[in-house]
Write a structure and sequence with these properties.
The protein is of the alpha/beta class and 228 residues long. The protein has a single domain (2-225), classed as Spore Coat Polysaccharide Biosynthesis Protein SpsA, Chain A. Helices cover 26% and strands 26% of the residues. The protein contains 6 helices and 13 strands. The strands form 4 sheets. It has a 7-stranded mixed β-sheet with strand order 5-4-1-6-11-8-12. The longest helix has 13 residues, at 85-97. The chain is globular and about 40 Å long.
């Protein structure tokens, strides 16, 4: 079982903090965002990780190394220039992710819940009957228009009830035969909704998208105030 942490974003809205460090290395609650993810994935027993990088990737990869300092194994997937966006980054990393379904985590979000929520891989994805399973959240203040809706049978649908959390399981077949190119995930999601090969479920614990200085401050205030 493997997981990929998407860590290639530039974090322009977090400058000047991200002038010298990539966004997933921004510290919250005394440690980097990506360290939180690595530690929680390790606690699940997922110790084979893939991390992509583009903006300040040398800083990121020097920090991560091969993962031994975190007690995991990290395969690095470097990207040129401004990176390949989300779908492109996954497609480039496919040779590192193996032939089984894999969990993908956005490196710039924080989920204050039990990562055991993500196990096991949904059966339909594990069998290849479905290509992906997304984890959704109730719409945050910065995305009140939402992304999708959810059918009673768990099928992802067009709508505005929920926002994509940045956590998802994918079957390798979802990207099979695709050339490495700069492209986002949203067009894939829309195609899979149309073909009825994508499911979803809703997360309930506090979730933060650390996309701006204000939201970073909000997360740090939350972590400082919560019980130890």
């Amino acid at each position: 079982m493997r997981a990929m942490i998407l860590a290639a974003g530039q974090g322009k809205r977090l400058r000047p903090i991200t002038a010298t460090r990539p966004k997933p290395m921004v510290e919250v609650g005394g440690k980097s965002l990506i360290a939180w993810h690595i530690e929680k994935l390790k606690a699940l027993g997922i110790t084979e990780l893939v991390v992509n990088g583009a903006y300040l990737k040398d800083v990121l990869f020097d920090y991560l190394g091969d993962g031994h300092q975190f007690g995991v194994t990290i395969a690095q997937s470097p990207e040129d220039g401004d990176g390949l966006e989300t779908a492109g980054g996954i497609i480039k990393a496919l040779p590192l992710l193996g032939n089984s379904p894999f969990l993908v985590v956005n490196g710039d979000v924080f989920y204050d819940g039990d990562y055991h929520t993500f196990l096991p891989c949904p059966k339909a994805v594990a069998m290849g009957v479905k290509l992906a399973h997304l984890y959704l959240i109730t719409n945050p203040a910065h995305n009140l228009k939402g992304d999708y809706a959810l059918a009673q049978n768990g099928a992802l649908q067009y709508g505005s009830d929920y926002t994509f959390s940045g956590f998802a399981w994918y079957h390798p077949q979802a990207f099979a035969g695709r050339a490495v190119a700069r492209e986002p995930l949203r067009p894939y999601f829309d195609a899979w909704v149309k073909d009825q090969v994508i499911t979803a479920s809703v997360l309930s614990a506090p979730w933060f998208d650390v996309g701006t200085v204000e939201r970073l401050q909000e997360l740090n205030a939350y972590l400082q105030a919560r019980p130890a």
